Amino acid sequence: MNTVYSVLVKQHKTYKEYFNSIEQFYDEHAWAKAISSNTKISYENYLKEYPNGAYSDEAINIIDAIVADKKGWEEAQNSDSEEAYEDYLDNFQSGNYIKEATSRLDELVEDRESWENAKSIDNKESYADYLKNNPNGKYYKQALTKQEKIINDEKAWEKAKKEDTQKSYKKYLTEQTNGFFRDEANERLEVMQKDEESWNQALKTNIQESYQKYLDSYKKGLHANQAKEKIKDFREWITTKDTNTKSAYEKYLENYPNGVFKQEASKRLQEINNNEEALRKEKENDEEAWKKASIQNTQTSYEKYLTTNPNGIYVNDATQKLDEIIQDKKAWNIAKEKDTKEAYSEYLKRFPKGIYQKEVNARFNEISNDEKLKLEDENQWKETKKSDTITAYEKYLNNYKKPIYKNEATQHLDELREDKTAWEKAKNINTVVAYKNYIKDYPKGKFIPQAIQKRDNLLDIIEQDNMWERTERLDTKDSYTKYLNRYPNGKYSAEAQKRLNRIIQKKKDLEFIEQHKKYWKEIQHKDTKEVYANYLEKYPNGMFKDKARKRLDELLEKEKIILNFDGSPLSKKDLEYIEKNMPSNKIGRIIAFAGNFNEKLSERISGIFALLFFSLFGTILVVGLLALIIPHLKNYIIYVIFIGIFLVLYHFIMGINDSYIGEYGIYTKKRNQETIILFEDIKSIIKYDNIIVIQSDTASIKLKTYHFLKNILNNCKNNPWKI
To answer: CA-CA distance, 260 to 267, in Å (whole number)?
Structure first.
């Protein structure tokens, strides 16, 4: 900007020419900016700012051309065909969308050629290549349909081959009317039909030679394995007949349950089994008769065995047992008649394993332990009542032939069994009503706690289903939270957690948007280029990215203006002064300036006269006092006064300061002495009212007009110091 001013000042001698040149300059600058953007808005902005500008007619023509160009481009896009883009390129050879139209035309041509190539090859791979290389192609759907048709055809063929039956090949031919594998399917079907005819002929003949003939003709035929099995069946049967044993026939039937000779093998096996069964039953009957006689171990049982099995295996044993029983019975009758411990002891001595041993021992114990048994009965009954279970009552009743409390025990046992039956019934029904009925009918039942628990569990399941239905209907965070708190491992806990997470995430998203808006308001309130730059860096795709970028550009544009330290724009005279006395470029572009031309002329003159007055008064006073002390000094008083005035004026003129603030530091010039402090070298900044002192290791600078100067320094992007 400073260079621009210096050029304009040199080119134009009068202010009128100068200001005219400025107007022309801004007109040309605005036109150059419009051309640079080359958009409808940029030309409209130019016309709005310079309706009578030097380039207004040209701007209008360009806007019309842009509108026509855009309309032609939109029509081409809507048509999206080779002809449409060729028409656009012919009609708008210098249009703004030449590159896009050419690119799209090339894409369409390439897409069409690729499609024609795929159709000419007409296989799965060619269409796959087209789909891969042209995901947005105009023929994408057609290619996808073609590819799917070929894939379905291949799948149908693979399925038919895998099943390898006449039905599968006929199904393929029916469903795939234009299938690629129709000839192969017809050929395979014809072979299978001939195979089937040959096999049916072999089955009809049903001899080993016919199966061998089929196998010779169709080694890998549809029924090759069956033919082999049939031949093996014939050979196995010959071996089985030669062996002619039960195990041989069983093995044959096991290996060939549907064999050719199944009936004959079964018949022979049945004959062998019948013979064995007859012998087995005869022996079994004899064994059973002897076992029964032995278990009964009575005179009658042995006599019966000898009568029914006169040739039995155990005839001698039965005869011996019968004699022993007759003697045993005589001894038992004698002991029973005496009915004393001694008589029963004598019997046991003669027949320690006699058939009346139990009766003898029982009676012996009855006689000697009646009181003891009674006491045991009483104790057992107490334990039974304490246990109060079916097993306990059954045990009590079984342990004693004539229990004292038989009737009472039987009654309790019936009640417990009835209670258990009712409980089992309730469990099988497994409903709330069933458990309630059990609790009502058997209030003192053994299973009351389990029934209550079962009932409560079912009620809880019903309540959980009802609560989930209410929760789904409400569909709120509180409803899902309440459900999960009550049923953390419930039937619907996973779905409830999923929906709760969705609601929480939605709330977080809304909160983020509100926080984002609040953050944007804070940025707008601060309104500095740093906060806008930070926003764009933190949120490059944020809601307010366009507004932030626009405002940042505006603030950066403002930075290009050189201001006084008090914030006022510089005058033309100040700018000319800066051009002549521009400091070293070490501090970068000049942002603010204060110096020789900051004060008004009247203020500078009044300052000089005031300084002269006080300086002259002070000099006369000092010289007068010295003249009283040194008489001959009064002859030189006028010279001393002039010397004092000269020194005051020299000090005033040489004491004028120039101060500059640039992008990278601060520059001052005092009595032709230059001082530069870069921001990166600053060690401290001290403020006193409206003065600040900036210090580095090698220099120190004082600056006035503190308040606005503070804002200038704080907004220097390369200044890390904040005042």
So the answer is: 13
Q: Exposure of 62 by Cβ count < 10 A (0-12 exposed, 13-18 middle, 19+ buried)?
A: buried
Task: Spell out a b/e string for 558-571, using b for 16 or more CB atoms within 10 Å of the CB, else e.
Answer: eeeebbbbeeeebe
Q: Rounded to an integer, what distance in angstroms lies between the CA atom of residue 218 and that of residue 208?
A: 15
Same domain, 382 and 346: no
Residue 673 within a domain:
yes
Residue 435: CB atoms within 10 A of its CB come to 26
Residue 336 lies in a domain: yes
Domain that holds residue 8: 2-96
Q: In what order do the strands lie in the sheet with 590-594?
A: 563-564, 590-594, 657-662, 665-670, 673-678
Q: pTM for this one?
A: 0.27
Place of tokens 């707008």: 524
Distance (Å) of CA 105 to CA 118, 139, 140, 182: 20, 15, 17, 41
Look at residue 215 and tell me if it is in a domain: no
Exposed e or buried b for every residue in 35-54, given b needs 16+ CB within 10 A? eeeeebebbebbbeebeebe
Cβ distance 31 to 46 under 8 Å? yes
Shared-domain flag, residues 580 and 693: yes
Q: What is the chain's length? A: 723
684 in the same domain as 609: yes
Instruction: Give the distance from CA 97 to its chain's centroid.
Output: 43
Residue 457: count other Cβ atoms within 10 Å of its Cβ.
Answer: 12
**Does residue 320 sit in the same domain as residue 401?**
no
Last residue of a domain, one of 299, 320, 355: 355
Q: Would you tell me the crossing angle of helices 166-175 and 182-205 to the nearest 10 degrees?
A: 150
The structural domain count of the chain equals: 4
Q: Say if 482 falls within a structural domain.
A: no
Give SS3 for 339.
coil
Same-domain pairing of 297 and 437: no
Domain match, 303 and 380 both:
no
Rounded to whole angstroms, the Cα distance separating 378 from 382 reads 6
* Residue 298: HSE in the Cβ half-sphere, 13 Å Cα cutoff: 5
41 and 7 part of one domain: yes
Residue identified by tokens 């010039």 is 669
* Residues 378, 337 within the same domain: no
**pLDDT averages per 10-residue partition of the chain, 723 residues:** 48 58 83 86 87 87 86 88 87 85 87 86 83 84 83 86 82 82 82 81 80 79 79 82 84 80 83 80 83 83 84 86 83 84 82 80 76 74 82 80 79 83 87 84 84 82 84 85 86 86 86 86 88 86 87 71 60 68 65 55 50 63 68 61 62 59 78 77 76 81 63 64 61
- Token pair for residue 491? 């039937």
